[in-house]
Write a structure and sequence with these properties.
alpha/beta
Length: 125
């Protein structure tokens, strides 16, 4: 984004869209990032859209962030609901260990959301 859509709002809005799964998507790694942001006193709201086998473990590891509202687990959403979620986010996070070309990444970028991806051998660099 060239400029934040909410320049007076100090909250960093982070979005993840995908399976809640560890081996490929590395969703539990995101908890360490949340913990670090909290230690640095960054005011953030991390929204996760999707569901999967690691949801219970994610909730357990991120239990400090759930009651504060810093982590929001929305479950699955319809295609019609997604554009507003992308537009409301400042940053789109993709922590996959391996990927092809993720549609969620393209959708986020199309809505002006800044992508942050991990370095992987396959897919998006």
């Amino acid at each position: 984004r060239m400029e934040r859509s909410r320049p007076d709002d100090p909250v960093l809005r982070i979005l993840y869209v995908g399976r809640i799964e560890q081996s490929q998507k590395r969703v539990l790694d995101m908890v360490r990032v949340m913990d670090q942001l909290a230690r640095m006193n960054v005011d953030f709201e991390w929204t996760m859209v999707g569901d999967g086998p690691a949801r219970g473990e994610l909730e357990n590891q991120a239990k400090a962030h759930l009651p504060t509202g810093r982590l929001r687990l929305l479950g699955t959403k319809t295609n019609d609901e997604m554009p507003a979620l992308y537009r409301n986010a400042d940053v789109f996070v993709l922590t996959s260990a391996f990927e092809g070309l993720p549609v969620s990444l393209l959708e986020a970028m199309a809505e002006g959301c800044v992508p942050v991806v991990t370095r992987v051998r396959s897919g998006v660099g």
